[in-house]
Amino acid sequence: MKTKTYLITLLIIIYFQSCNAQQAQTALPQVENNLNGPLDYTHETLILVQKQPNGKEISLGKITTDGTIHFNMPNFDIKALYDSINLQHHNFHQLFKISSDCKDRDVFEETPFDNVYSQKTNAIFIKKYGINVAVLEPKSDKKMSSNNDSTKDSVADSNNYFWFYIDRAIPYKEKCDKTNSRTGAVYANISTDIQFEKGWNFIEENLISVQYNNQDDSQAIQPSKIHFTKISPENKKVKWTLRQIAKDEKIQTAKKLHSLTPLTKEQFEKWAPNKLDDLSITTKEYGNPPKRFKNKNNLHLIYTNKSQQKEIELYVVDCAKSPDDMNMINFAYAMENKDKSDKDIKPYVTQYNEKEKATNLLYKVEDRIFVTASAGNINGEELWKYIQKLNVEKLLKDQ
After folding, report:
1. How confident is the model at residue 157 (pLDDT cuts 50, 70, 90)?
2. Cα–Cα distance, 162 to 116 (Å, whole number)
3. Keyword set for this entry (predicted)?
């Protein structure tokens, strides 16, 4: 009877230890800080995103209202991605700071990693109201001291972290003694010991030691020993923090645009005037965005006067639900009007394209719609007079 009781007790202990171990293994990371205002995750789930080299945005997970980070890292064909945009994949070794300055390294020697497709993700963005408003950053709360005995100051985070995507499962173990090309002296030691899984891997860059280099009257801190290894993003020594990158007024503008109902194709086409003074419409096309923009909620118009050899090509773009486009326009306005007095600021921005021998004009209406126009044989002021006759404001009033 005592033996049976002992066995039952032992099984119960093992069961609870197993449950506790599973809970410890599956514990999700938490955000260490909390931003105010629209970026306060306690009011609404925050979405994690990353933009791929081809410009396509992918979702990487979310931060829920209790501050828990749920990574949901999607797999993709990284080789097909880079090939589709005719972009050379990254040099694998250089992503881990191993390069031609390694002692006794032959840069032309073939390695198992020459044909590996991989990419390093340094930033995960928080997206809200259609724009990137903050960054989720992994940091170390552990500080280290320089190996210079003359200082006791803590000089740097001892660990950096990043996500790494790779097209295959492969071990990576390497050492590199970085040497000065002039003196041949070793100034840093780099080492890696990683068992990569195909897809996403979370990597720790452990800055083991640093040294001071005297430069004239100052001292520069230089890493002297770094070790790369794989780690879990749930590891307690990884501290996840939020950092706001968008100014409050930019967020409020994005919020306003994100709440608006976009104009319809019918509204655009009904509004478009058939004539601009002495110019007649020859092209009216919906959904063809201007260069460097992806917003298809626009109207492409061309007005011409063959007898005077005048032609104006323009786009009228609605930024409702597309605040990123208006941010680009606001940046152009800011650059154009930098250091100008109020009396010198015009309601539009112009630029002469020497290559195409054309005047380009940019004009925004109520921080929602922008017009981009180009014309040959017409200067900036004359082009602006034609744009005023469009009466873009009427497009919004008739909404």
Report:
1. low
2. 18
3. Signal
Residue type, 273: P
* For the ranges 10-24, 70-84, 206-220, 289-303, the one whose mean pLDDT is highest: 70-84
Q: Are 374 and 313 in contact (CB under 8 A)?
A: yes
We report the CATH number of the domain holding residue 294 as 3.40.1000
Report the 10 Å Cβ neighbour count for 297: 20
Residue 165 · residue 196 · CB < 8 Å: no
Report the C-alpha gap between 399 and 397 in whole angstroms.
5
Of the residues 221, 246, 271, the one at which a domain ends: 246
Do 167 and 47 lie in one domain? The reply is yes
Q: 């899984």: which residue's tokens?
A: 197
* Number of folded domains that form the chain: 2
Q: Are residues 299 and 240 in the same domain?
A: no
Q: What is the pLDDT, as a whole number, of residue 109? A: 83
**CA-based diameter of the chain, in Å?**
111
Q: Residue 189 CA to chain centroid, in angstroms?
A: 31
CB proximity list for 161: less than 8 A, separation 6 or greater: 138, 139, 140, 202, 203, 204, 205, 231, 233, 238
Is 69 among the domain residues? yes
311/373 Cα distance (integer angstroms): 10
Least confident among 118-132, 234-248, 332-346:
332-346
Q: By C-alpha distance, which of 239, 260, 286, 223 is closest to 97?
A: 223
Whole domain around residue 89: which residue ranges? 27-246
The CA–CA distances, whole Å, from 34 to 43, 66, 243, 266 equal 11, 11, 9, 44
Mapped onto helix, strand or coil, the DSSP state of residue 268 is helix
